[in-house]
Batch of 4 targets.
Target 1
Amino acid sequence: MTQWIEACAKDDVAQEDVKRFDHAGHTYAIYRSPDDKFYATDGLCTHEKIHLADGLVMDHIIECPKHNGRFDYTTGAAKGAPVCVNLKTYPTKVEGIKVFINIA
Amino acid sequence: MNEPGIVIVGGGMAAARACINLRANDYLGSIILVSEENLLPYDRPPLSKASIVDAAAHEPVLLLDESIVASLNVDVRLGQQVTAINRSEKTISLNDGSKIPYSKLLIATGAKPRKLNCPGGEFALTLRDHKDTVLLREKFQPHKKITVIGGGFIGLELASSASKLGCHVTLIEAQPRILMRGVPEPIAKIVHDRHLAAGVTMIIGTGISHLTENAVHLTDGRVIAADTIIAGIGAAPETKLAADAGLAIENGIACNAQMQTSDPDIYAAGDCASFPHELMGGKRLRLEAWRSAQEQAATAAANMLGGAKTHNNIPWFWSDQFDLSLQIAGSAELGPNTITRVPAEGALVLFHLADDGSIKGASGIGIGNAIGRDIKVAEMLVAKNAKPSPEILADPTQQLKTLLKA
Ligand SMILES: Cc1cc2nc3c(=O)[nH]c(=O)nc-3n(C[C@H](O)[C@H](O)[C@H](O)COP(=O)(O)OP(=O)(O)OC[C@H]3O[C@@H](n4cnc5c(N)ncnc54)[C@H](O)[C@@H]3O)c2cc1C
Ligand code: FES
């Protein structure tokens, strides 16, 4: 099943940056990579449920602003202490100026 | 009998991280971890925060649970105290009289709260481990009078937690302000004002004369009634074992930058250890910080296996009080020139620059995670020994990240 929902406009997210997107009681994080691709993950750190959109994006890594846990946002893989649980990722697509994520 | 393997004294963050990293570095020999505590290694930062205020977080957060211990194949000996290190025979002695041989030893004994040495000092509770938290949680009932001695991080976090639970809280600090050590004044002031706003009575610049069971007597004659008295006056590194074994001690177990003690087969990591820090001007540091304990353990683990890793991670620390989060990276002391940035309303980041323009540290405070990103970039700039543009640092409309590419 697919459920594409509009998350933001392309220009809402700077290159190598992240933006928070809330939908139906759930928080997502939308990333724009240095090579200008869009990615989406769950919005909360798997360590203590902190908003990752307040964190720093470096290449394909998002670093949590709370205790510096790291994830590869393209795969959701946890990349080091203190995080050990991976992040859920969601497919994205760009149509015109809009970014969609598939939350199904 | 098997060859002696690696033995770890202590069962806190540094010990846990060493186990993980020894295996990650493909060490296949035996690991024996001896801890005087009865719990598997658990996380200490929640002990003054969520574990007190949040009923859902009362259980200790294990760093190594049973399944991780099994998968790492660590022989964990709980409830056993190490009483001596016998360097000439390369063994440690336990309180039950037994001995364990080692090829390499890691001392990760942490620190213990300082006790108040005024008359009646024994009436003050302290916080270091999970059972201390269980006791404090019982004491922090609504409307109880809680008096905290010491305006350092643990004291302030406990004042915040007690206040959140509806206690009447008084905090007493002998110095002219709270957080004198390592925290710049403008940030300490935000913390101070937040405590006042929450109704905490702040008594600053006044010493303690003596304690009775239910009162704190101040040097100026005032008497503060208290149902519970807590001392948060710092922690002393747990160095006795090392000192008795003749290892060099210098504000902690003295290590070189490889986290190796004065005995080449013995390493130390975490709150018990001091080491010279190249990026901090070669100054000997002893940190009591959660991330650093992990990083030091990672350095020690690599070097116990024959590596030559130099420990030069930038010190980093955080504290949570009420809705505020504070973070400090690097050193404020080494950077006398301050650049101020206001990244969001109510948030403040100070960058500490040396006279040659290089950045040595940053300190920030804000609601939620307002400052995490800026402190992280600052930390990376410190690691690069960068001389960032003061104009960009001060301008919240400019992304700090651009400075990393310069
Ligand atoms: C209440 C509290 C809140 C904190 N909050 C923060 C925070 O917000 N941010 C932050 O950066 N840092 C914080 N810290 C600091 C951080 O938790 C420590 O830096 C970290 O725990 C150090 O790890 P360690 O392994 O060196 O020592 P510890 O965690 O103290 O572990 C040492 C272990 O060794 C055992 N031991 C000692 N001697 C012996 C012996 N002879 N035989 C057997 N076992 C022995 C001890 O019982 C203990 O289990 C906090 C600390 C406390 C206590
Ligand atoms: S909350 Fe993200 S690393 Fe702890």
Note: Chain B has three domains: 5-112+236-304, 115-231, 323-405.
Target 2
Amino acid sequence: MIAPGHSNRDDLLARLTGPPGPELSCEECFAQLDHYVELELAGTDADTTIPGMRAHLEGCSACGEDHESLRALIATEARADT
Amino acid sequence: MDSSKIVLNPAGAEQESRVWIERLTAIGSERDAALAELHALLLRAARFEVGRRRAASSQLRGGDHDDLAQQSADDALLAVLGKLGDFRGESRFTTWAYKFALYEAAAKVRKRSWQGREVPLTAEAWPLMADDHQRTAQQSVEITERLAALGEAIERELTPHQREVLVALALNDVPIDVLAERLNTTRGALYKTLHDGRQKLRSVLAARGLGLDEHKEQTPA
Ligand SMILES: [Zn+2]
């Protein structure tokens, strides 16, 4: 069986072994997501303030997608406000 | 001022958040009005999410799926009201509330796009895909060795549950919310299982001298 969507073997390796280093759980990620996104959009160092978030967003595709969406929504609204 | 940054006006936001909490914890018509306004915001966020997902999924094209957005806004409103005491003011109240609507909508869309599809929990055979040839022979050998070691470790070192979860999520692209529903568990519990399995696989690679980033820092003397 060829796994669908994995044309390259580095990608497969990354999916099987996950990100290196400590990462937040899904629950911790959800609890901090709004704060993290606002720090990112304000141009401050979100990863120093909330360590382990970046690794979780790389390792957990559902939380990664939720992060992308919140970031996109807030950016859209901030642009509409100005 | 740097125009590439989005200014979120912290002082005004704090005041705005305080007013939201006051109105939502008031009684009578003040609260009813706040609830209606909040529901409208959550519905907008849920529609935003459904629209994004629909554009990205061939399963969902050809329907507006507004029922999902409506249901997500309803569920998110309950979640927000239930968690109001957890709001710490670390972000704007609306940013905090939106994440509930996005979460509900994303999970519902993932489930709908997998409705009626079988969730594959096993790999028929270890995928030995063709290399892209854009690497040196040495790199190619290393990655082949690692994948072979991982295939073996998945069979021998993981528990049956870890194996099932890893294969479904990392190999077969099953969305975690869909798997959680079928296995009657939660996203958080499944991710922990995935994480533990991945850690075990990493330690197998390291023990065989095939470690990933670790071996750069701690090469045995
Ligand atoms: Zn997660």
Note: Chain A touches chain B through 48 residues (CB under 8 Å).
Target 3
Amino acid sequence: MSATGALVTMAIDGREVRVSAGISVAAAMLDAGVIAFRRSVNGSDRGPLCGMGVCYECRVTIDDVAHRRACLVMVADGLRVSTHACRPERSEGPA
Amino acid sequence: MERREQVLRFAQDDRFDILVIGGGPAGIAAAARAAECGLNVLLLDEGADVGGQIWRRRTGSLARGAARAWFTRLEASGATVIRGASVVDAARRADGGFTVTAERAAGALLVDAGVIVLATGARERFLPFPGWTLPGVIGVGAAQALLKGGASFRGKRVVIAGSGPLLLPVASALAADGASVRLVAEQARSRDVGRFALGLWRHPATLVQAARYRAGFVGTPYTLGTWVTAARGNGRVEEVDVTNGRTTRTIACDLLSAAFGLVPNTELARLLGCDRTDGMVWVNHDQQTSQAGVYCAGEPTGIGGVELSLAEGEIAGLCSAGHPGDARALLPRRDRLRRDAATMDRAFTLRPELRTLAHADTIVCRCEDVTLGAIKADWRMRQAKLYTRAGMGACQGRICSSALEFLHGWEADTTRLPVEPTLYSTLTAEPATSAPSANHGA
Ligand SMILES: Cc1cc2nc3c(=O)[nH]c(=O)nc-3n(C[C@H](O)[C@H](O)[C@H](O)COP(=O)(O)OP(=O)(O)OC[C@H]3O[C@@H](n4cnc5c(N)ncnc54)[C@H](O)[C@@H]3O)c2cc1C
Ligand code: FES
């Protein structure tokens, strides 16, 4: 629970979840049981490695902006995240 | 959240005397001390909040102790703070000052400053071994960072295997969160390890105590001279192999925390042409680098923990503000902490066996999926990039180049622009003549 105990509603691959306000998108996704955040160039699943913005393994699409680092973005009411599972056509590498 | 493409530039008369890049303990101390001298100071950090690695906290939660005192002091100092801004470029102008480009979710930010203080901190060193790319294999500090970011590890079976003084504090933090820590394995075997593991890098006492009362942690073995050799699982980590060189055993787990100490973030320093020694940014007595007008404080000058970062940050803040005399009193403390840091470094020296963990088919560059076998040991990083694209992906070699430096003894390649993956719109940002006033917060 965050200091205020407030909850926000966000969507992960279209699924609505209620999470504590003030947590990172990566934390919310892990708590929601998401294992694979992105798919590597050879097609294997990847999840967060560094937790601090360095490795880019936690890249997801947030509110239609691709390649955002889930570990650096905070949850917000109405925020929409999609993993590769929802993005069959996506380009690899930095935008 | 609607995405706005927008370039912010501070108006010419809003030019900052001092720009501090990185808002960890070093950057906070530097910005506060410099602003207290009456200078116009800007602090940029790419995180959602300032605090860096150790003072990272969940948005809205209260800081305690030293962290709280420094947050308060920073706020009172009058320094401008912008969060969520990643500095991607820094260049010297003809007049000797600097123009710095930062990227934010809302668009690019261009800043003019007379002096730069680099306080970009450190990251964890990851070494490749079979299975290290499986989801559920994360860093050691990474587990702590995710925990502080609000993730829960309750009920998870965790193995921690790596090196450095972070292993035990992270183990106790995870245990306090309800994780079942199965093993804490430190690769080093030196007599000094215990001293640093248990003493020097203090963790909030309450957390440690809370953890001690948990059977899960009290029963946790902490072994020296033991390291991970492989992780396996179907789509995620399910078990890991650890060895002491004689016997290897397999442990079932949901999470493996594996990182091998810290490496300094020196990309911006290299971009600005600052000299380095042994991979660390060289600084003089006043924390000034080999480049006039560029100071550096905290982990980029050497890994030494929060107290050293604070001392260096204060000195850099005072000296960059033109008050070196006021910094004199801080020098003995800094120098003593530096000597401790050197002892610590020796205690956690990485064993040579760690160079043999990755096989030919083990991925080294995770961004481009380049295997160890595709990279020739007698190359340099530059050739690896050209021939295999290793180090050319999103992380710009931050993970694989420190691994390859250790595996093959390579030097990091010269930094190319931009230092972080950048939106095209940021790079092509045309500075507007005048601009909105400084926008506090992301
Ligand atoms: C994950 C982790 C956990 C740690 N835990 C402990 C601990 O428990 N105890 C301890 O004593 N030490 C710990 N350390 C060591 C720790 O780094 C130092 O003690 C202390 O945080 C160092 O302060 P610093 O200001 O030098 O660097 P940091 O705290 O790393 O701060 C650097 C800041 O710079 C920012 N930054 C970097 N590059 C850019 C850029 N290009 N643009 C904008 N901003 C940028 C980062 O967002 C970060 O906030 C930890 C380190 C890591 C990596
Ligand atoms: S987990 Fe490494 S960048 Fe987010």
Note: The two ends of chain B are 13 Å apart (CA to CA).
Target 4
Amino acid sequence: MKTVEEINQRIKDGDAVVVTAAEMTSLVKDNGLKETAKEVDVVTTGTFGAMCSSGAFLNFGHSDPPIKMSRTFINGVEAYSGLAAVDAYLGATQPNRNPDVGLEHGGAHVIEDLIRGEEVELYAEAYGTDCYPLTEIKTQISLESLNQAIMVNPRNCYQNYAAATNSTDETLYTYMGTLLPNNGNVSYSSAGELSPLLNDPYFQTIGTGTRIFLCGAQGYIMGEGTQFATDVERKNGVPVSTAGNLMLKGDMKEMDADFVRGATMPKYGPTLYVGAGIPIPVLNEEIAKRTAISDEEIECRIIDYGVTRRSKPTVRPANYHELKTGTIELDGVEVPTSPLSSHKKALEIALELKKWIDKGEFYLTSPVEKLPTEGLVVKPLEIQKPSILVKDLKGEALILARPNDQINEVAQKMVKNSINHLPVVDERNKLLGIVTSWDIANAVAHGKKNLTDVMTKKVIIAREEEPVDVIARRIDKNKISGLPVIDKDNRVKGMVTAEDISRLIGGD
Amino acid sequence: MKAWLTFSPSIVNRAIISDLVKNFEITFNILRADITPKGGKMLIEIGGKQRKQAIKFLEKEGIKLTPIKKVVKKDEEKCIDCGACISLCPVKAICPADDWTVDVDDQLCIGCGFCTFSCPTRAIKVTE
Ligand code: SF4
Ligand code: SF4
């Protein structure tokens, strides 16, 4: 048994034994738990991942004449300024207001620009008051000119996170990166055995007030982050899915651009790569045992991101050792994996923190308050008006074509019913393809006779149980005007068109 | 494919290119040209069914042909070794080293550009 005070005394004397979480795993394996728990004083952890829930409070100082800013833009990125006169909160995922820049340079990039010491443009509008007469301002600012630039991240360092794959037949662009069709790849984001909260899964040492490494500066844990959950499934003591997370703060003026980066997940948006490292004092054998956890013992779930609902189906469980080998088996196929968070940087951070402690520049803290360990689940947001499902749409008479129908018959059918799409089905009404009036015109123009030669065989479909809003997005994304509705057995039930949907969505 | 054609001074006056286009079923595009009486260079893009025969013809006529390959380049300053690109590469040209430095092998790269679009820091580019 040791105390934090004793460990700090050893740090001061230059005697503390500090190892990274990865080194701890092998030490315990080689020398046993008892010996290692006695020997090691501090275990350092690290992670460098895309953490969307990040941002910064900025105080610009007062201009002359003064202004009470009500809308603020920094390098074209809006920061929320509904707080006092010259304060704003710049969120990492805010896109640029210039549509040509859009997602390419958002809040996260401006945060990086500031930390790099670059000058950025501040533009603010105001409604003008007796004490703050100015209504508009445009000037250049930099990290140095700001009174305060305090990074405050409401939800960082998730204890664990799902791995993602995509069972649909189109590429998806998500916050988990680009997901190739037909389960073509798997991405995962946790740092595994180096990840801070996986090394102290019951928050025995990490809590409110804990001093940490944040983007190259000494920062602090403000408390539990938003969406914090405790009551989750665990394996080997660690949650197998998202659970705990942290709200962090740090002074941007002391940060190092090597450990923070503005990035853009393609077609998703800006996000901030945050480097965080947390020291864990090895106070007893129990804590030592937790920090010795290996990638093999940490499990997560591979989730199908092809399902755009709140709860997505699990494809299979996987541990981080498997994921880090670079391939994983899904349904008998070897699928390549991508980490998304930088394991190299994570280790660099754990080593940097170790160096600080070794040099006596960083002292450990006891939490002023423990983080919750039970009773918290993440509540969903219920939409008051439940979402309308495809099967709720009022269907029209089902008009279908068969593969050996003549082109001219099909053309007549379409004209007679004034429709533009016709699903082609087999004798059991299973979908084979789709023809549009354009395909028919094309067939006539080229003298083609068979429907199977002109129909589109790769059909974008709607399932009966899908919400109409998901279909609206699909129609928009694929630039199509309608799609067949399919039941569980792939039988065609009807058609939904862009018109049906806009009538429904525009109608209230 | 794209290639540089190098003309020696002795052949700049002959109508090789027009013969080429007349006699072979090819698509042919001149992207850049810098030819003087002292010889010169021309950047072309050549495609079509008889492309291989056409190239043989050029070589027979004494023109040196240097194909240009698409190469993938990673900006080491910008790259954060996140590995998002690794699983997207169809030819496994992107692999992590033991310390998780993400390495790209431009010999294996086929220039498909999947990695380019998906890199969160826009660190990886395909150039010629
Ligand atoms: S996706 Fe970009 S930043 Fe990430 S490893 Fe590849 S090149 Fe580097
Ligand atoms: S361009 Fe294509 S082949 Fe080349 S490294 Fe990138 S993903 Fe691989």
Note: Residues 51-60 of chain B form the longest helix (10 residues).
